[in-house]
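cron nightly-structures :: item 1 of 1
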Amino acid sequence: MGIPDGKRDDLIVHDTAPFNAEPPARVLAESMLTPADAFYCRNHGPIPDFGAERWQLSVGGAVAEPLILDHAALSTRFRAHEVVATLACAGNRRAELAAVRPLPGKEPWQQGALSTAVWRGARLADVLRAADVDPGADLHVAFTAPDVSTIPDPPEPFGASIPLAKALSEEVLLAWEMNGAPLPRLHGGPVRVVVPGYIGARSVKWVTGIVVQPFESHNHFQRVDYRLDGSALTALALNCAILDPDDGVRIDGGPVRLAGYAIAEDARRIDRVEVSTDGGAGWQTARLAPAEHRWAWRRWSLSVDAEAGPLSVLARAWDDGGATQPESPVPLWNPGGYANNAWARRELMVGSG
């Protein structure tokens, strides 16, 4: 299997079966929203092949009124909402951790295992209220899907869960559109969960089952995988990256435009991004794009003067609570290669020589 139809032919492909790929960094830098043909792909098994006419969702467990919804019922019974949100793989920037110590069998994601889109669909909260869930209960909302993964032994479909409090927040969607078009099959169509602020593994694609229960999902990808220090990964970590220029390229001397993104943790906002070209001795504040969307990345840019020779660039983000990123990926290494949010780095060569 090569690159699927509808995707750019310059994607950085890490696996073909299942298909896992990220866009080149410069492509992510081009726009606030990521086109569907460039949006990163993270899959754990074969991509299900069924359309909206065959899709059905069951909602059960600790609810007073269990539901069975087809696509028409979901899209007409419940008011549609839009959320601009960045989804990110928990293994984004894993390649830097693999350089600290090998991570065999793990996709060497660079800084492009995240993308941003306009998602449209029904609020999960509205569906759960229609099922008459107790909003004050200490419960979890588990999602199941039909994509069977051979990573667990024995194989099992992908699944995940989130706390009920998060599921009832207004930003979590059962989405059927992406960037104004029907949700592509490759990205979870006809319907997927979108959980802004959480790692991408909780935004279950091709969702067909929702169960409200008093415990986290027992699915392999919640109980065994996507965990750090014994706990299931939830909120994304404060992070930033340098997208342009790409690492190791040769650039002309003079003014050089640097560009990248920054993302904040679930309850925080990006306050500033700083860039250093002298090994961290001094820092310049980058220009941040307007904070138009609560759950989306902030793009940043900065022009620096570059003289002939090697140029090392560092970048770090600060949130509105005064937190910043750790300097080195060394103490962040973990067997899953998750949650690398060390300072971003680029090594460039200036001059035509």
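cron nightly-structures :: done
DSSP finds six helices and 23 strands in the chain.
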